[in-house]
Structure formats: structure tokens, C-alpha cells
Design brief:
Number of domains: 1
Organism: Archangium gephyra
Protein name: Peptidase inhibitor family I36
Radius of gyration: 24 Å
Largest sheet: 4 strands, antiparallel
Strand content: 25-35%
Number of strands: 7
Keywords: Signal
Distance between the termini: 56 Å
Helix content: 10-25%
């Protein structure tokens, strides 16, 4: 009887070890938000998939750089949003990363439509 009980415990322990634990593989989050305040300043944030799956059928965003080095952001999400990067801005140093990023981003601008902040997140939960 004791051997049978011990065998049952061992078999149960092995079976429980083979059951996967709760994991978060495959978790994704997407979103898209753009806000322009009454003073003209504002921000956009989201990720590639969030803009692609937005309820606005015309939604898009892009970061681009011209051959002369001008860096600009443009988006449409229930309205048009735009900013350009001043030539002395530290944002310039990560602009090419933004152009290749499919993860989460946050960009802000002032009332003169100058980009004032850029944050990039590259995570398996945000990238597609």
C-alpha cells in the first residue's frame, strides 16, 4: 500500500511538472492617440498596429527625414497632426530609431509645431 501511495505521489508530481505555468507569451497591446490642445501643442502616442487597426479608416503616422536632413512627424487620427524637429534638438539623435520602430512611441510638440519630446519603447508586447 505504501509503495502504491508513493507511486501515486511521484506520478502526480511528474504530471504537475509537465503542466505549463501561467505565462504571458503572446500578450500584445496596441493603441493610437493623438491630442492637440487649444494652444496648438499636443502629442501622439501608440504603436504601428494601433494606428493600423484604429476605428479611423484614414489613420496613419510616419516619421520621415528628407535628403537635406529635415526630420518631421506626421499623423492622421480623426484630424491631422504634425511637427518638425529643430536642428539643435537632441531628438535628432534617435530619429532614425523612430523611423524603424514598430513598438510604442510618444511624441510631443509645442504651439509652433516643433517636436519637443520623443520616447520610444521596443517591446515584444508592443511590436508587430
Amino acid at each position: 500500500m505504501r509503495k502504491m501511495l508513493l507511486s501515486s505521489v511521484v506520478i502526480s508530481a511528474v504530471a504537475m511538472a509537465l503542466v505549463p505555468s501561467v505565462g504571458h507569451a503572446g500578450f500584445t497591446w496596441s493603441g493610437a492617440t493623438c491630442v492637440k490642445n487649444s494652444g496648438g501643442d499636443g502629442y501622439c502616442e501608440g504603436n504601428f498596429n494601433g494606428f493600423r487597426t484604429s476605428s479611423d479608416p484614414n489613420a496613419y503616422y510616419y516619421f520621415y527625414e528628407t535628403e537635406t536632413g529635415n526630420q518631421q512627424f506626421s499623423a492622421y487620427l480623426n484630424g491631422w497632426f504634425y511637427c518638425s524637429v529643430p536642428s539643435t534638438s537632441p531628438i535628432m539623435s534617435i530619429w532614425r530609431d523612430a523611423m524603424n520602430n514598430r513598438g510604442w512611441f510618444h511624441i510631443a510638440w509645442n504651439a509652433s509645431s516643433q517636436c519637443t519630446a520623443l520616447t520610444l519603447y521596443n517591446s515584444s508586447a508592443y511590436s508587430y
